[in-house]
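Write out the 3D structure for:
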Amino acid sequence: MLPNEMPTRVLDVGVRDEDPIRLHEPVGSSIRYMCLSYCWGGAKFLKTTRANYDKHKQEIRLDELPQLFQDAVRVTRSLGVRYLWIDALCIIQDDINLTDWKRESVRMASVFQNSYLTISATRAPSPHSSLFAKMETTQVGPVMVRKILHAPPIRMREGMEGTEWASNFPLFRRGWAFQERMLSPRVVHFGPHEIEWDCMKRRACQCIPDTEEDIPASFLWGVGTGLDLTATLLEISSIKQRGTLDRVCARIPFGIPLKPSEFLHMKKTDDRLAIAKVWHTTVTNFSPLELTDKSDRLAAISGMAEAMQRNTSNWQYLAGLWKETLLLDLCWHTSPYSRIDKDDRRQPTWSWAFLDGRAFMPIAEWADIDDAGWKLQWEEYAKVVDASCTLATHSSTGLVLDGCLELRCRLIPFDHSLHQMLRDFTFLDEYGSCCCEAQERLYFVPVGSFTYKKSSRHLGLILERIGEDKSSDMVRLGAVVIPIGKISRTRFDGFRSRSHDEQAATHAFRAFKEATGNEMVKIRIF
């Protein structure tokens, strides 16, 4: 079946080795094409510019292309497909005011989603690297233990340390590649040890090409989950480990389970927390990934936001958050290694998109719970009056210039006493920020609480007043997260480097509950 929506340009690579390559504009036609997902970087390589645009429409010589592009052309031809999309060649890279890039970047998600197949250069650190790896013939391969009586088949293979992950899978560290994998209907990964196939129905690799079972991502790659040949046996039908992704195309270091099908085949639902679960997991996985230009963060995830919109009766998107779950979305928090540089702080301050590093979203840490009792109960202590963003382009999921939220909430002065009770549970957004000494311009806002079984999580914001003394205009400085109960504390990433002091959490919770009894006022957060 051919796609209805086509890229503006593709490469016509022909069908034979000797056929010329040229830039083609499929106006008014529907064609089958493939995409290349890869890492930019390294020495300069051929791109399409205003100067060579007309020349590229006539011919691009194969030997002009970097090695990775040449290999992708050969793979495309060998599969009997004539057209290939590579961003560096199909988007004009030096257009005035980046007009072409801005227009095409918001369409990139549909380019991958409508492709016949995505070639994932998983092991290649730059376009000058080869798509293909030299295989180690002496490497110990996977071992399968056949069924014994009624037991399921067992497979084992050598594990890979976390340091190997970073060097062997550079593409998985790249921000743009995240939604390319998640939205592509079919992906073939060219890894350091083998080729792996991933689509919506099954997964297979060179070492196990004909299994009827769906192979766990952790088995295919042996990635950072303690899978050791000498110590670990994996039951293919029952593996379920936190930190191990359900599909290799969503796998990133220390990731949280997330399936592409949750975007491509997500059913429309009115369950706000179910939708928030998918989005919070997406942001927590995406936010630590690398981007050459940090301002691309919203653009690099815009396709996934559009996919969410199609399945949520057009929810309103606000710089990486959703108006319909806004109070919950607002309570993201930083990790000890993720902050915003004061000199690089932009509005809206309430968006995680301007953070340098991982943003932990509230429900993401609970995403692997899949039992009958998963249902989280969410209680709100504030109300959204209005919310809006000024868009940089026509796309509602793309770049924003600024934004404003209007809330009715409890505004509690963040005095010395309150600070003492909440300091172990406060996560500041900026490098160099400090509220060790209470400041008269700082406020605490209790936002909401959610519970799961006998555990609960209590969320709030730290705000700073801007303007005159009686101004109701605020900017965000950080978040407060108070985990109560054993399950909540052990799941809370913020406590990996902090004390698990139950008494401190209890005192903080009392201060939180007391704050929820105050009178509500109206404020604006920029």
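Residues 217-255 have pLDDT under 50 and may be disordered.
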